[in-house]
Amino acid sequence: MLTVPVLGPTLAGCGGSGERGTGASAAATSFEQTVQKGDLRAACAVLAPDIRSELEESEKKACPVGTAAEKLPVGGPVSTVNVYGRQARVVFKSDTLFLSRFPDGWKVVAAGCVPESGRPYRCAVKGG
């Protein structure tokens, strides 16, 4: 597992209301649903391009196979959405995703994230 050193503390306390929060929540939910259904090709389409590339490089496998290797949790219902500028954190019952806004919409930049007391989130999938 890897850590997300910047996004967690940066997003704490920021609101998720409005169109940005809805868009981030929809993208995160889409990712969670595709993972749950086992449609990892579709899940890879929701990943940010750099994250997809890094996952393929680190796993030495195509994105769908590399995503399966990470054994991502099924998140359940959304409990919190925090948006700060072009960054978002979407907290599910059993997972936390971090997203960034790209010209074509919100993309997942970290998934399978769990908070660690006094430390950054630890994430199964993220960029370096």
List its traits.
single chain, 128 residues, alpha+beta, Nuclear Transport Factor 2, Chain: A, 6-stranded antiparallel sheet, 6 strands, 39% helix, globular
What do you see in this structure?
- The chain has a single domain (2-126), classed as Roll (Nuclear Transport Factor 2, Chain: A), CATH 3.10.450.
- 39% of the residues lie in helices and 34% in strands.
- The protein has helices at residues 7-11, 18-37, 40-46, 49-59, 63-69; strands at 2-4, 78-84, 87-92, 96-102, 105-116, 119-126.
- 37% of the residues are buried.
Brief write-up:
With 128 residues, this protein is an alpha+beta fold.
Termini separation comes to: 12 Å
| Parts with pLDDT < 50 across at least 5 consecutive residues | 1-16
CATH hierarchy, class: Alpha Beta
Provide the number of structural domains: 1
Order of helices and strands: EHHHHHEEEEE
CATH fold call: Nuclear Transport Factor 2, Chain: A
Proportion of β residues? 25-35%
Task: Compile the SSE list and pairings.
Elements: E1 2-4, H1 7-11, H2 18-37, H3 40-46, H4 49-59, H5 63-69, E2 78-84, E3 87-92, E4 96-102, E5 105-116, E6 119-126
Antiparallel strand pairs: 1-6, 2-3, 3-4, 4-5, 5-6
